[in-house]
Amino acid sequence: MNPKIRAGFLGTGSYLPNKILTNQDMEKIVETSDEWIVTRTGIKERHIAAEGQTTSDMAVEASKQALHSAGLKASDLDLIIVATITPDTPTPATACWVQCKLGASQAAAFDLSAACSGFVYGLTVAKAFVESGMYRRILLIGAEKLTAFVDWKDRGTCVLFGDGAGAALIGPVAEGHHEILSSFMAANGKEAELLKIPGGGCRFPPTAQTVDQRLHTLKMEGKEIFKTAVKVMSEATLEAARRAGLELKDIALIIPHQANLRIIQAIGERLEVPPEKMFVNLDRVGNTSAASVIIALDEAVKGGKIKKGDHLALVAFGAGTTLASGAVRW
Ligand code: UT7
Fold first, then answer.
1. Are residues 137 and 227 in the same domain?
2. How confident is the model at residue 3 (pLDDT cuts 50, 70, 90)?
3. Is residue 321 lining ligand 1, measured as CB closer than 6 Å?
4. Is 178 a catalytic residue?
5. Is residue 239 part of a domain?
6. Which of 47, 158, 178, 257 is catalytic?
């Protein structure tokens, strides 16, 4: 019998655009205050893509770092997955633009649409491809240009989001070496109306009227999403640990989706995990949806927050609603 193939991280990378929009800048755009944004969300600033800079451009920058850290070339890749809700174009997939820009001509390419859970959903997908022996060098990206889809007149949402990209190389690893020990995905379509971009699909194809009605921008029932997020992300963290044969006390760091500091704190309280074990970078980055968890993971790696052999839990929740988690032994 062939030995089991184990999937894990071969490298990571991330990219944030240079331009920063502070809360003071937001005060000039909508009726808000630094005090409200900080106390209600924990966000102080977010990065904004340049005009003309696309989701695939940011994905390529993050991918170059991930390839470098894995010691691989673009021509080594056999699959590119881009988790995004802000694609360069409705079709073709952003993954195809990335494939072209990287020169990864041997790679198949597709997008994954699971909103803020996108990168963590992708972990299950990439893990399954690697363990089946079908692909060995998978570039898994979370990338978003959310500022292109934010309603800049809606203070309830526009202060929350930022742009950026993160990338991971997923492939076969030795047992316990950056290994993805478990992964979990779920969805609840009954909550689909809570967070959406209503227009641009076949339900409301773009017309002058849909533009006037601002149907091409993000709409969110923040309070409902908040309550569900705390509950289901706590449960999904436990599920990832359980599937990996771990207890919560074995987890050195939880890397949650970066939507709101109060959500992260509430999850920590529910799970009785001390604040220092909950990774936070949303104060500088805001909510970058599918890019959020992989940008955070890459920052944690580069910032020396993760030691070899540490157990990590990744967890995310977003539009759909979708929910995903995973446990990793670094
Ligand atoms: O990434 C996918 C998942 N997304 C999330 O997890 C986001 C979850 N939701 C949240 O993080 C929070 O619900 C928000 C940060 C979006 C909103 O916080 P909240 O504490 O739920 O506030 P709220 O929407 O209930 O609004 C409270 C008040 C309202 O005023 P009134 O009606 O009480 O007079 C809002 O109009 O705060 C007002 N408000 C603001 N005031 C100043 C809403 N946005 C702002 C703002 N600045 N930017």
1. no
2. confident
3. no
4. no
5. yes
6. 257
